[in-house]
Amino acid sequence: MKAIVVTNQAAGIAGMKLVEWPEPQAAINDVVVQVHASGFTSGELTWPSTWTDRLDRDRSPTIPGQELAGVVTALGYGTTGLSVGQRVFGLSDSYRGGTLAEYVAVEARNLAPLPGDVDFSVGAAVAMPGLTAWQGLFVHGRLQGGQSVLVHGAAGAVGSIVTQLAREAGAYVIGTGRAADRQKALDFGAQEFVDLENDDLEGVGAVHLVFDVIGGDIGKRSAGLVRNGGTLVTIAGPIEARPADGLAIDFVLVPDRAHLSEIIQRVREGRLRTNIGNIASLEEAVAAFNPIRRISGKTIIRVRP
């Protein structure tokens, strides 16, 4: 099969190569998926799990990518809940990756059925941002209707999903980002927008929940905006500042079939839109992940036409 591999952590995305690779086999509780579309987060190449196994042994060269949508072609021993020929979407384990390829072996519990009326590219694009947004808002942030939410990077792949889910839950959403992203953030449902380069962040006042995807100085300043009893959730940890009278939670998403099903149902019903900035083939993947201009939205690799 064809696959994108990385061998040199220092080279980063520039070190990606398209090669021929053996097809994976399904272990216990696994399924093999014929990948139709996949996604990739550049930060994966900085994660220890991309380069070593759980016993800290080198596992390079590796096939990166965690996000996928495709069709089940084989079941491992003891696998339940999915069947051969079924359309699925979800995430692979970070210690396995492998979705930037024509086939990948994935734990069945990490996948959910993909309805026939949802495109594979949409399934791949919504898996990781959707789970991140859902768990940050509702599992860790305990968002309730009527609360206020400050969403950093509101026009990005994760922030745009956070914005939509928070609005649907009845929250008042303030988005942030670059000046050029203002209209896009408003189109996804933000009711106010703060240009982080030119506007006064502290001017937004106290909010119930901050959803931070930026970290650094913005993360530290945001802690002071959390009202008493509120929460700051971040995927950009470690947390450098905490609210005076609230919670600060640095979390990593957990693959969850029930959450995936909630998310894809909203997509089917038109209540949730993905944020795809570019779609490229597997042969074009290396160039797509090394763009000559900034791409607003997620890059999806369409492995099969």
Structural features, described:
The protein has 305 residues and is an alpha/beta fold. The chain contains seven helices and 15 strands. The chain has helices at 48-51, 120-140, 157-168, 182-187, 216-223, 257-268, 285-288, and strands spanning 2-5, 17-20, 30-39, 67-75, 87-91, 103-107, 111-113, 148-151, 172-177, 192-195, 207-212, 226-234, 247-250, 276-281, 298-302. The strands form three sheets. Strands 3, 4, 5, 6, 7, 14 and 15 form a seven-stranded mixed sheet that branches. Strands 10-9-8-11-12-13 form a six-stranded parallel sheet, sandwiched between helices. Strands 1-2 form a two-stranded antiparallel sheet. Strand 9, helix 4 (182-187) and strand 10 (192-195) form a beta-alpha-beta unit. The model has no long low-confidence stretch (mean pLDDT 94).
**Shape, please?**
globular
Number of strands: 15
- The helix/strand class is alpha/beta
User: Low-confidence spans: pLDDT under 50, at least 5 residues?
Assistant: none
C-alpha Rg (nearest Å):
19 Å
Largest sheet: 7 strands, mixed
What is the CA-CA span between the terminal residues? 15 Å
